UniProtKB/TrEMBL annotation:
This protein's name: N-acetyltransferase domain-containing protein
InterPro entries in the record: Acyl_CoA_acyltransferase, GNAT_dom, SNAT-like
Keyword Transferase applies: yes
Annotated Gene Ontology cellular component terms: cytoplasm
Swiss-Prot/TrEMBL keywords: Acyltransferase, Transferase
Superkingdom to which the source organism belongs: Eukaryota
Domain N-acetyltransferase per the UniProt entry, residue ranges: 11-185
Name of a matching Pfam family: Acetyltransf_7
Amino acid sequence: MVELVPGRERIFFDWVTAAEVEAAIKHEHIAFPPDEADSPEQFRYRFKHAKHLFLGAFAASDQAKGRKLIGHVCGTQSPLTYYTKESMSVHVASSPSICVHSVVLLESYQKKGIGLQMMREYLLRIQRQISSSEGEYRHGKPERVLLVTHDEVRPFYEKAGFICKGKSDVALGQGVWYEMSYPLKQSSSSTSK
Ligand SMILES: CC(C)(COP(=O)(O)OP(=O)(O)OC[C@H]1O[C@@H](n2cnc3c(N)ncnc32)[C@H](O)[C@@H]1OP(=O)(O)O)[C@@H](O)C(=O)NCCC(=O)NCCS
């Protein structure tokens, strides 16, 4: 588990549980305008069908019991090599593209490096699962992680290792969207002799 220590809270990353999905939905609606926020149904669908792609950032302290969700990254898998709006509501298991639909950190935790740590942890966990012969990717390994972003947030994703593929055709709320892609390494053990 990755840990940072801003103030007296411990920040760490872990998979989101069923009890925490409603908090993630609330955070989504705080972070995005109504025409960009994903719906509660989309969130519940993603948790039900692709919980292996639903990572949370959590805060814990000695004063409070348990852990508090402070951010999340969630996605689905798609058979296409580019990001589509359909992938926001459909998960096709064992597909080559992981489409990330929501990256959010509560405002009071922003600008401390936690968002970037969360994104890197997400990519690292996927990469580790690809290298394993068990688990979610045993019937088909993802080759890339895709997402769309507005121009101003591009530097954030570039710092995490994403490459900008240019403007996306996706129509969602206001403004132009750019497609970002992160190439996943395929494990050497899957290479035949
Ligand atoms: C985007 C978000 C997850 C970033 O989290 P964060 O913890 O504030 O980001 P970090 O502190 O880890 O930033 C890491 C780097 O990315 C850059 N960055 C972070 N947010 C950025 C933004 N909104 N625009 C441009 N660059 C950004 C920072 O400048 C920082 O670089 P630096 O270390 O050289 O200063 C967070 O701001 C958020 O939840 N925003 C609201 C929802 C949102 O816009 N999500 C993305 C939708 S595509």
